[in-house]
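Good morning C.,

I know you're traveling, so I'll keep this short. The sequence:
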Amino acid sequence: MLVSGNGDIYESIAPKGKVVNSVGAGDSMVAGFLSGYIRNGNYEDAFYTGLCAGSASAFSETFATIDKVRKLMTQMEITGR
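The tokens, ready to paste straight into the viewer:
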């Protein structure tokens, strides 16, 4: 869940997958969030990209590739309020 400074709420169920190595998953989440925000200046995209980047990293033996992140992004649902 992400609550923006103006009160917008974004939430999503984490993608399903098998955790292989969680080392660096949080850092990948932050990097994905920043990448999404820089790309569009949009909190929803930043939230979505961060969630998928962190998850893809946890589902990989090493850091996730962009292809793995994009694959997860096609499987996610985000609810904005």
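Safe travels,
E.
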